[in-house]
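User: Okay, second chain of the day. Same drill as before: sequence in, structure tokens out.
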Amino acid sequence: MALFEPTASTKVLNSDGTKNSKLERPKFVLCMSFNSRGELITGDSDGNLIVWSSKEPRMVFLHKKLNDTGIFTINVNDDCLIYAGKSGKIVELDSTYQSTGRSFELGENCGGCRCILYLNNNMLIVGTKKNSLYQVNLGEFNFFKCLISSHCDEIWGLSQGNNPSSFLTCANDGLLSLWDSMSFSQVWSVGLQEKLHCVDSHPSLDLAAVGLCKPKWIIFDLIVKKTVFVQSEGSEQIEVIKYSPNGCYLAAGSRDNSIYVYRVSDNGLKYSRIGKCSAHSSFLTHLDWSNNSEYIMSNSGDYEILFWRADTCRQVLDVSVIRDITWASRTCVLSMETLGIWDNGLDGTDINACCEAKNTDLLVSVDDFGKVNLFKYPCASLKADRKVFAGHSSHVTNCRFISNETRLITTGGNDMGVFQWEILND
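Assistant: Same drill. Structure tokens below.
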């Protein structure tokens, strides 16, 4: 505790104008940096800026309550220092730790500042708590621009986009985002004000179906960027949503153990419920459509694999019929063709997603251990050969090949990352 007590030689400034030098020990030291004299500068959760001697453990300078929301980041450039807190306000100080008069405040939608880097005397790079990077000019022409933006909560929804190089993501932060894989950039992002869980794009129209973390799904126009249809269904969140290959049907799998099937009309703007597929004894996890848009294969939380007629919502039990069905996608983690992705000791929740690249006969699975696993397709043998790739620092939630199958996209849970992988011949 004595470490945080100013000495007689400590220069003290109080933001409230008083001469009180007593300092309560802060709960957290949030950031630190060294100046050109080798002195350590720290910012803490109480908003205090402290300069520590380079020769002994004592305070040289203390500015109490410099920032009401705590000091989250400090960066030193020559004789100047910049700091920022949770509010997003960036302030520059001179060599005596007095304000230079130069400051900038990011909007609330940008998130609080988490790190700052000087590019030169006027230009900064700012990283925010919403996983975005901004370029900020503190000079004569104050401006800022977003360099890159991303999600700030778990990402579960992933789908191919409305052109061969694009893809869609949605997350618990309520953002629906369109990305371009060739330029490694976000094309746009729209906040829908509700937690989002799954997404699928229409095969021929500029529309996307989005399932929410509640018994509700919407249709979103990718051109005008607005919701054009809303449907409440079931009693639990929508786990998986997918258009049929011909675009005439939409299937929504719910945590209430049912699949709701709709007929699509009026250029994707009208949805009429055909029926409900009810035979699963646990929540839906994945579903795939047949090439002819007549059948659905589904997985559930208790490891069931069931098959359905889309136009009647009746379960298909005839093995001879099931055997001859060809599938338009392979995202069901439980099937005869994906048997080999399961190692001994895995439970049914360890593998979160899989997908197939039809042109190259590849199968990818992603798991709770942060790994991306590459197999040859079909993968029907136990202990199948694979290549394992690391990159995510948390569980990997989803994976999809973009439309031309030249690249793979994976999404992260706690790391909130969107990773892009190039397919190389080997």
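The longest helix spans residues 319-323.

User: Thanks, on to the next one.
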